[in-house]
Amino acid sequence: xxxxxLFAVILPAAFGGALLVYLAGKVSGALRxxxxxxxxxxxxxxxxxxxxxxxxxxxxxxxxxxxELALRVDALAWFFAITVSAIDLLAVVFSLRxxxxxxxxxxxxxxxxxxxxxxxxxxFSADLxxxxxxxxxxxxxxxxxxxxxxxxxxxAGLKYMIxxxxxxxxxxLAVASLYATCGTFDIAALGQQxxxxxxxxxxxxxxxxxxxxxxxxxxxxxxxxxPDAHSEAVSPFSAVLSGVLVRMGVYGxxxxxxxxxxxxxxxxxxxxxxxxxxxxxAWVGAITIVVPTCIALLQDxxxxxxxxxxxGQGGYMVLGIAFGTSMGIAGGVFHTxxxxxxxxxxxxxxGAVEYRTGGVxxxxxxxxxxxxxxxxxxxxxxxxxxxxxxxLTNGFVSKWLIYKTLIGEGHPFLAFAALIGxxxxxxxxxxxxxxxxxxxxxxxxxxxxxxxxxxxxPVAVLSLTILALGVFPGLALRPIAAVQSSxxxxxxxxxxxxxxxxxxxxxxxNILAGVALSLAAVYGLxxxxxxxxxxxxxxxxxxxxxxxxxxxQYSAKFYQRxxxxxxxxxxxxxxxxxxxxxxxxxxxxxxxxxIYTGNVNTYAAYIVIFLxxxxxxxxxxxL
Amino acid sequence: MMVKRIALILALPVVGFLVxxxxxxxxxKITARIQRRYGPPLYQPIIDVVKLLTQKENISHGVLFDxxxxxxxxxxxxxxxxxxxxxxxxxxxxxxxxxVLYLMLLSPLGLxxxxxxxxxxxxxxxxxxxxxxxxxxxxPFLLAALAVMTRFGTxxxxxxxxxxxxxxxxxxxxxxxxxxxxxxxxxxxxxxxRPFDFATAPQEIASGPLVELGGKYLAFAAIQGALHTYxxxxxxxxxxxxxxxxxxxxxxxxxxxxxxxxCINAVLPRVSVAQALRYLWKWPTLLALAGLAIAAVMRG
Lengths: 623, 300
Description:
The complex is a heterodimer.
Chain A: H1 2-27, H2 29-49, E1 55-62, E2 67-73, H3 75-98, H4 105-124, H5 128-146, H6 152-182, H7 187-194, H8 199-217, H9 225-232, H10 235-245, H11 248-260, H12 263-267, E3 270-272, E4 275-276, H13 277-297, H14 302-322, H15 326-357, H16 374-388, H17 394-408, H18 412-437, H19 453-471, H20 474-487, H21 508-528, E5 532-534, H22 560-566, H23 573-593, H24 600-622
Antiparallel strand pairs in A: 1-2, 3-4
Helix pairs in contact in A: 1-2, 1-4, 2-3, 2-4, 3-4, 3-10, 3-15, 3-19, 3-20, 4-5, 5-6, 6-8, 6-9, 8-11, 9-10, 9-14, 10-15, 13-14, 13-18, 14-15, 14-17, 14-18, 15-16, 15-17, 15-19, 15-20, 16-18, 16-19, 17-18, 17-19
Chain B: H1 2-34, H2 44-53, E1 58-60, H3 63-82, H4 97-103, H5 106-117, H6 121-152, H7 157-163, H8 172-175, H9 177-191, H10 202-205, H11 215-240, H12 247-267, H13 273-280, H14 283-299
């Protein structure tokens, strides 16, 4: 009973918090900030207390549809809920100083909490109506937050909204159709009924949901909204957007593929071998990895670069779950969590740099900030290590599980797409780190200091999480095994340090021991040598020709030769199509707009013509 | 048992280190003979490294600079411990080929961090060239590596090696000739030797990432470079030349490949980054793609 009360409190607290924070802002800024942090922290605590619980709560009976609306928490919902609420809390804490002094903060914090509440609502929904309503609340609040800065951000927000609405329409169509055929909105009940339906109908339902969730998860080719939205949003929200909000798509895919459709029946949706739903889904995932990661390599805007990686990493998750094996799903779900940690971290680090340099995120204008902002630098280093998937970071374990699945299932070309994506990632994220933090510091940034403590704190927490889950992957893999049980697939066997011997060779503690011992041995030798004298950045060897101060940005066009080879092939065709479509649509609407002449006489004429038509129709009907 | 295992784990990096130092001397000797010089004695690199380690003055560009150099060497050492060397594979149950592929990133990352922290444009340019080159050779190499993993149906290096033990016809090079050839064609790029040594070109960019290194720093980087050679060659031997029944046959094969590489290094001129990419993404990649396709079809 206690647990039910606890569960019942979460969503009212989350939604109520959004309203309260807005009202508190009218009283005092400090109170608003305090309440924002409290109401962001409350769901984290409440969700954490629900660990391991299985609660279902009917909250409203729709009188006209004979349908009960309900919330539920199981391992799947819990896993996503804790990730969502934790990332949102960190983003709110980061916002305190980052957003200080900006306009419309009541609105901002209120929307941040509303987005959080919407996401929690999505993962806790036990029926499609609640899911759809929360999905819309989240989508609209996101639109408001993307457009928050005005100017270019409004265009980015609109682009997002158009695509998001298209996805929502697809979902609504599927929901309505399901109610018409099955007579229920309950997701679990639908799971039983759908398996009896015809394959064509199931494919239709599946495609509608995959479209809706795919747009949110930004899989190629419906990804075009994401790069603009991520780079134009304020950094703490970019962290939430790329870290967890976009990944509601992964949650949705899991829900549809495994709970609503049952994996066995998804597998039967094949016509003949290559035309096979899960096989096509896997290839979509592979393309989603390679093309966006190539495009990321060409970016000079720090946030745009990360945004493209956000798309690319989504491809790994899709690849992982597309085969429905316990190892693959574990990899895909674990990668969702890992991505949330390192991409949120990286957006915060870039945000910290923006904060101190006056909004600079052009990689060709920065440099040498590592000594000025050591905490942000270490955060950035750990973040890119996670994104690359270096051993001892969490990204490594999830990618390892995904590679292993692809090789084990006999799809080496898919595995190649995943692996080469990683090597492309190395290039682009090293550029990110190098051009911001390494090399010579330009004169104008000589006075830059580390960001305030409240901005360092989320960076530190996320960095430690990445390392902790990298060394003790079992901490996350055990809840993921529970998620798998709740999805009805065999749970992966795990140990604290990886997977047991029968599944493969991975033991992170031995890797850690190896790295630590080697470092210690090397350091011992290093310490024996003579202590070094510190040299200034201009006290360097230039073979007789010294670097002119502040006149030479040698990190610009970092991989020029690679750009020349890759550049011509990786235009974002989907975005070209979108721009073309928008251009045509605007032309059409421009024509339609001419109906509204602004002249009362014309409108009166329209009314007369319309009435005449009606009368004619009526007479026609009687004849 | 435990003691023996720990001894083996420690022995591998030591063996790697000794072989690597031998390589450094040998390569200078072979190159000299090809160019009709007498060349320095085999132990010359040891003298050089000891000299560098005991130099009176060392120059550092900060904590990150030091850390990068340490990570570079430590990364190479830990990678060696995971690569089976002729029947010695103490850590093989802790990490497979995929783990080794990733561990191989640690030491370039360390060197790249040190290069970035050294605040010298030549160092950064060298790193950007090195990373571009890496992207170039990783495409064919990963294709070939996947062909091996697909052909032998495992990601474990030990199992890959033991599957090749029957005879020379069981070697990876015989089972997957195209992949082996592709990997051999990109070996000079992976080793960073001529014709693909533009990342550390002494005359153009003052040795690139190494430009600010002196004294013990240069000694560490030199050892790391030698260990890197050992790592790449021993992987090649494990994947395509049957590993080795014992450590001696294994090292003999490593040495043989090294000899061929040194000869190529001695006679070819340096190419540019664009030329390298054009080469690497053409023949080696096509061969590796064909090799992977064949491996996939044979398995499927």
